[in-house]
Amino acid sequence: xxxxxxxxxxxxxxxxxxxxxxxxxxxxxxxxxxxxxxxxxxxxxxxxxxxxxxxxxxxxxxxxxxxxxxxxxxxxxxxxxxxxxxxxxxxxxxxxxxxxxxxxxxxxxxxxxxxxxxxxxxxxxxxxxxxxxxxxxxxxxxxxxxxxxxxxxxxxxxxxxxxxxxxxxxxxxxxxxxxxxxxxxxxxxxxxxxxxxxxxxxxxxxxxxxxxxxxxxxxxxxxx
Length: 224
Ligand code: 4GX
What we know:
Layout: E1 2-7, H1 20-27, E2 32-37, E3 50-51, E4 61-62, H2 64-72, E5 80-83, H3 92-98, E6 103-108, H4 116-121, E7 125-127, H5 138-149, H6 165-170, E8 182-183, E9 186-187, H7 197-215, H8 217-220
Parallel strand pairs: 1-2, 1-6, 5-6, 5-7
Antiparallel strand pairs: 3-4, 8-9
The chain binds ligand 4GX.
Ligand 4GX binds next to β5.
């Protein structure tokens, strides 16, 4: 899987993606990142990437030309994604769909946003990572890359493989415990020490269902 990132802050990458599972995936050649500085796609003396908004108001807007030029220079034919609070929320179903592509193009906006013609005529999908306001699309792009990368075959070790994703998308995880059996007076649930695999399986399913009902009833209603 190859991620092509368009950004005004290329130095932010690969950042946290070099650590752990994603770092291993990159080292193994299963994941690649290519970072493009939007400023390199300008042609004026000042390498201007932003401008004042038509109609007035505060802040700056990213100009369309460098973004169109950068995307048009691309080699692969994967979807072009704009990280934006205006998009539908990223969830595991979207992550799974994205993981089927060979290349993804991720546009990271800054300031007040990008000229609307980018979203209207260049971008295939807008994606938000949550209903809060960040300073730029780079962290959202990293979140997307991280979530998609762990679904690429071979990136997770066989031990940690994403086993039943349809299950994982609908329910919260059951509680996990490791040694010691008693920590500061708090004991691990008896059933987990019993060695009865069928009972353990049932307990975990019940726990997952209970917690989802209590904490995230929206997941059970299929609202995501
Ligand atoms: N999930 N931001 C992007 C600038 C911007 C605005 C509109 C494109 C269109 C965010 C999020 C997010 C802040 C990143 C505004 N770019 N992105 N930036 N939440 O808050 O994805």
